[in-house]
Amino acid sequence: MKHWIAGKSSWAAALLLPLMLTACLFTPGKFESSLTLHKDRSFTFTYKGEVMAVDLEGMTKDLGKMMPSTDDADAAPDAAPDADADADADSDTAMAEAEETPEQKAAAKAAKDDEYRELAANLAKEYGYKTVEYRGNGVFYVDYAISGVLTHEFVYPYNQDAAMIFPWVTIELRGGDTVRVKAPGFAKQDMGGMGPMTGGGSDDMPSKLDGVFTLTTDAEIVSQNEEGGAKTVGANRVVTWRVTPRTTDAPMAVLRVAAR
User: Fold this and answer.
1) Are 62 and 194 spatial neighbours (Cβ–Cβ below 8 Å)?
2) b vs e for 221-232, b when ≥16 Cβ sit within 10 Å of the residue's Cβ?
3) Which of 35, 130, 183, 215 could form an SS bridge with 143, CB 3.0 to 4.6 Å?
């Protein structure tokens, strides 16, 4: 019998389940990323490395285990569990899993691979993408670079057609002369207490966050959260974050730039 799990996990499950049924979620794998942001607001952002598709089906199943059944939600707190109903439910689940043949599993994987190849082809047409390759098992290789001037906020990645909705890197304009750089995608994502979010279509694929994010700037650094601090390189200050599956604090820096 499914039980209601108190606390933030159950609320997160309830809120995220509809999202997972309609959107694609992606996480970084092995990568190198950089942001050069000058005090005149000109910037260049790059990302080169793996992009890993989250196993939404597996996550949805896990969330389903955390959600209350209709019977449980309506039952009185002191109601005794229905052992026969539990046994029937377990039996039905086992039968459903047993009915999925190797051929069906292979067909489902092939369909997902086709979907990802189509996504790679579409992303390759987007501005900034030099290379987008689907390498199988839910792993993409991406070489992305874009330059511009910060007249508005910047988010990466973002693709409305592919429903990429979880930002890895954001640059927020704050006040007339301040920007905040934050990279929530370059840290372990707890997803509301349900455990880290990892990507991949199989257990043997590389699914660990492993990369370097480098900020180079000639602007004033108001604050930043890299323990080693900023280093002077020529006329610039450089902050380098090494991120792994154990990284819990997303890279963050606040800079003072030219007022507008």
Assistant:
1) yes
2) eeebebeeebee
3) 130
Among candidates 151, 217, 221, 213, which has minimal Cα distance to 184? 213
Q: Where are the domains of the chain?
A: 24-55+111-256
Per-residue pLDDT tens over the stretch 157-166: 976 665 555 7
List, in order, residues 6 or more apart from 11 with CB less than 8 Å away: 192
Closest CA to 4 of 57, 91, 92, 66: 66
| Cα gap 28→92, rounded to integer Å | 37
| pTM of the shown model | 0.74
Rounded-to-integer distance, Cα 46 and Cα 97, Å? 43
State the residue for tokens 């390498």.
Answer: 135
Per DSSP, which regions of the chain are E strands?
26-37, 42-53, 129-134, 139-149, 154-156, 169-174, 178-182, 210-217, 220-224, 231-233, 236-243, 252-256
Are 22 and 9 in contact, with CB atoms under 8 Å apart? no
CA–CA separation, 164 and 153 (whole Å): 17
Could you read off the pLDDT of 127-139 as tens digits, one per residue?
A: 999 999 999 999 9
Q: What are the distances in angstroms from CA 62 to CA 5, 157, 231?
A: 13, 26, 44
Average pLDDT over residues 201-229: 82
Q: Which residues have CB under 8 Å from 219's CB, separation 6+? A: 37, 38, 39, 255, 256, 257
